[in-house]
Design goal:
Layout (H helix, E strand, L loop, with lengths): L4 E6 L3 H12 L4 E7 L3 H8 L6 E3 L2 H5 L6 E4 L6 H10 L4 E4 L6 H14 L4 E4 L6 H11 L6 E9 L9 H20 L3 E7 L15 E7 L4 E7 L7 E8 L2 E5 L7 E3 L2 E3 L6 H4 L1 H15 L9 H20 L3 E2 L11
Parallel strand pairs: 1-2, 1-4, 2-3, 4-5, 5-6, 7-10
Antiparallel strand pairs: 7-11, 8-9, 8-15, 9-10, 11-12, 13-14
Helix pairs in contact: 4-5, 5-10, 6-7, 7-10
The structure holds nicotinamide-adenine-dinucleotide and 1,2,3,4,5,6-hexahydroxy-cyclohexane.
Amino acid sequence: MSSTLGIAVIGAGRMGADHARRIGRTVGGARVVAVADPDGDRAKEVVRGLEGACAYTDAAAAVAAPGVEAVLIASPGPAHEEAILLALERELPVLCEKPLTPEPAGALRVMEAEQRLGRRLVQVGFMRRYDAEYERLKELLDAGGLGRPLFLHCRHRNALSPSWFTSDMLISDSVVHEVDAARWLLDQEITAVSVLSPTPSSAAPEGLRDPRLVLLETSGGAIVDVEIFVNCGFGYQVQCEAVGEAGSARIGDGHAMVVQSAGRWGGEIAQDFTVRFADAYDRQLRRWVAQAARGRAEGPTAWDGYAAAAVCEAGLTAARTGVRTAVELTERPPLYR
Ligand SMILES: NC(=O)c1ccc[n+]([C@@H]2O[C@H](COP(=O)([O-])OP(=O)(O)OC[C@H]3O[C@@H](n4cnc5c(N)ncnc54)[C@H](O)[C@@H]3O)[C@@H](O)[C@H]2O)c1
Ligand SMILES: O[C@H]1[C@H](O)[C@@H](O)[C@H](O)[C@@H](O)[C@H]1O
């Protein structure tokens, strides 16, 4: 193992390029040595300025490239499983962007491969767990500061959705964050999902069911409601209010600066996730690099990725049928207990 961890970045789109930049600038102890994207120009663009890094069009070639000691996956969800399995074949630690896989069956195959190795190597990029506000809320809940949790009221708003965004992705690509955050904050599994879809916003692209309201029921009897609205227009907003028997706490209202002027007051709203969660992405990467350098993983596990995928699958059924749908989970293997 060299003194700086050699990383292959798979997928050189928005998140791949952002993570590669962070590894170069704000995360010590690591360097990008390979970048893969079927769009070779994107891979070349990302390696430009990264000393010693090579561009590839094929994930397998990048994972097998000289000096690769860990793999960061930022390709679209359907491509994750193949890249993770390539990394696990070489026993390399992995940080995989969410969702681990879009369907639970793929996540189960990832868990099987990891269990065959007998140790954890996969971390899922549920970066909210590294956000300072989420961490404080988790500490408060764990300390019993709100008493028994009754509700989480969540709002997840994006200014605009990409052109390729589908109605299913509101659940499997966006609400998947709330699914993981709720499981983690409450330390409970989600047992059933219901989805309500109002008349779409006139700002939503033709055919997109945006916004939606997703209701999650938990094993401890709490209810989580999530407003997902990916074309809200005004900015990027992620809020969560926990209500317990002894009080409530809310995160996500943060305004960096409140300006009072000309008879008005107000602040700014971040325009996208790379701003709102900038510190969380850095902290997530630092922690991953520190563990990967020791050949292991911590943080959100393949089980967490699997459970989130199973909840989202139930959510898609609920959205299609209009019927509350139970979540079916396999037994949790000892590696993930
Ligand atoms: N944690 C977060 O807040 C956050 C934010 C945005 C996106 N994401 C996740 O990051 C991943 C990437 O999203 P994005 O917004 O960067 O998408 P993007 O479309 O900007 O980039 C994806 C890139 O992957 C490339 N690609 C496609 N198939 C590939 C393959 N088989 N191997 C390697 N590269 C391949 C594409 O050519 C593209 O350049 C997704 O899983 C997404 O859900 C997470
Ligand atoms: O892939 C992105 C990303 O995960 C963002 O954090 C989320 O706010 C978006 O809704 C989603 O599409």
